[in-house]
C-alpha cells in the first residue's frame, strides 16, 4: 500500500555521453517510447546537452536533470555550474554524489550535503546517491555505511525540503560492471535507507520518500528489482542511452 502512494521515478544518467546532436536524436526516439508512462521519467544529461534536452522535452512527460551542481551560488569557481544556472535553463533534477564523482573527483559526504542543500535552496530536486564498495559489502558494513551517508547528506535538510529529495542506492561494485545486486539485496538496503529517514523525519516522511536502485539495472532485471516493496524506481546508466531498453524499464516501473 505504501508503495502505491509513492512516486516511482526512472531517471537516466547519461554520464559523459552524447553530443548535443546525438542527444536530440535520442530524445526524439524517447518521447514516443515513454509517453504513456505511469511513472516519472527523467533524463540527467551532460551540461552541454541541457539546452537541447529542455527544448526537446518541453510539453512531454520527460523531465530534465543535470549530473552535478556546485554548492556556491556564484563566484570564482571555473568550470562549475550553480543551481540558479540550472533552474534558469528549466532543469528540474540533479544527480548528487554519484560514486564516479566520489571516486574520480574527490566528492565527500560533506560536499554531497553542501550540494544537496544548494540544489534544494535553488529549486532543484536532488537525486542523492549512496552505496558501498565491494570490500565494504564483504566486510559486512553496508548498512552502517549507507546510514552514515544518508544522515550526512540530509544534514540541515528540512522536512518540507525532504519532499523534493530522491535517494538512490547504488552499490559501487555494480556500477558499470554488469554486476547487479540481487533483488533481495537491493530491497534490504533500500529498506535500511527508508528506516534511517524515518528515524530522522518520522514514519510518514519515510513512507513518502522515493528510493531508487542504481547499479546495472536493465531491461532484463528491472521488473524483478522494481517489484520489491522499497524499490521505487531506478537510476539507469548504460540502458538509458538506448530508447528501446529505457522504455522497457519505464514500462516495468509503470506497472508498479
From TrEMBL:
Active site positions, chain numbering: 98 (electrophile), 170 (proton acceptor)
Pfam families: TIM
Compartmental location: Cytoplasm
Catalytic reaction(s) noted: D-glyceraldehyde 3-phosphate = dihydroxyacetone phosphate
GO biological-process terms attached to the record: gluconeogenesis; glyceraldehyde-3-phosphate biosynthetic process; glycerol catabolic process; glycolytic process
UniProt similarity note: Belongs to the triosephosphate isomerase family.
Binding site for substrate: 13-15, 176, 216, 237-238
SUPFAM superfamilies: Triosephosphate isomerase (TIM) (SSF51351)
Function of the protein: Involved in the gluconeogenesis. Catalyzes stereospecifically the conversion of dihydroxyacetone phosphate (DHAP) to D-glyceraldehyde-3-phosphate (G3P).
Keywords for the protein's UniProt record, in alphabetical order: Cytoplasm, Gluconeogenesis, Glycolysis, Isomerase
GO cellular component: cytosol
Superkingdom as given in the UniProt entry: Bacteria
Keyword Iron: no
Gene label: tpiA
Subunit text: Homodimer.
Pathway in which the depicted protein is active: Carbohydrate degradation; glycolysis; D-glyceraldehyde 3-phosphate from glycerone phosphate: step 1/1; Carbohydrate biosynthesis; gluconeogenesis
Organism of origin: Candidatus Gemmiger excrementigallinarum
Name assigned to this protein: Triosephosphate isomerase
Alphabetized Gene3D superfamilies for the sequence: Aldolase class I
EC number annotated for this UniProt entry: 5.3.1.1
Single annotated GO MF: triose-phosphate isomerase activity
Amino acid at each position: 500500500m505504501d508503495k502505491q502512494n509513492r512516486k516511482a521515478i526512472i531517471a537516466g544518467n547519461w554520464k559523459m555521453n552524447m553530443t548535443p546532436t546525438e542527444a536530440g536524436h535520442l530524445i526524439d526516439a524517447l518521447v514516443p517510447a515513454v509517453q504513456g508512462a505511469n511513472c516519472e521519467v527523467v533524463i540527467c544529461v551532460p551540461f552541454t546537452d541541457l539546452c537541447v534536452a529542455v527544448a526537446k522535452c518541453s510539453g512531454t512527460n520527460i523531465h530534465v536533470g543535470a549530473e552535478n551542481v556546485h554548492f556556491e551560488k556564484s563566484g570564482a569557481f571555473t568550470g562549475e555550474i550553480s543551481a540558479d544556472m540550472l533552474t534558469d535553463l528549466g532543469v528540474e533534477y540533479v544527480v548528487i554524489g554519484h560514486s564516479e564523482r566520489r571516486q574520480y573527483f574527490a566528492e565527500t559526504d560533506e560536499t554531497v550535503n553542501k550540494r544537496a542543500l544548494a540544489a534544494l535552496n535553488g529549486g532543484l530536486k536532488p537525486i542523492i546517491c549512496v552505496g558501498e564498495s565491494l570490500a565494504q559489502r564483504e566486510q559486512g558494513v553496508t548498512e552502517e555505511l549507507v546510514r552514515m551517508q544518508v544522515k550526512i547528506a540530509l544534514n540541515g535538510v528540512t522536512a518540507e525540503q525532504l519532499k523534493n529529495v530522491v535517494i538512490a542506492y547504488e552499490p559501487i561494485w555494480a556500477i558499470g560492471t554488469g554486476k547487479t545486486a540481487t533483488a533481495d539485496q537491493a530491497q534490504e538496503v533500500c529498506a535500511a535507507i527508508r528506516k534511517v529517514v524515518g528515524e530522522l523525519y518520522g514514519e510518514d516522511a519515510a513512507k513518502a520518500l522515493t528510493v531508487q536502485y542504481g547499479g546495472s539495472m536493465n531491461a532484463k532485471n528491472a521488473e524483478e528489482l522494481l517489484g520489491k516493496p522499497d524499490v521505487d524506481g531506478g537510476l539507469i546508466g548504460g540502458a538509458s542511452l538506448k530508447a528501446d531498453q529505457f522504455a522497457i524499464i519505464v514500462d516495468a516501473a509503470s506497472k508498479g
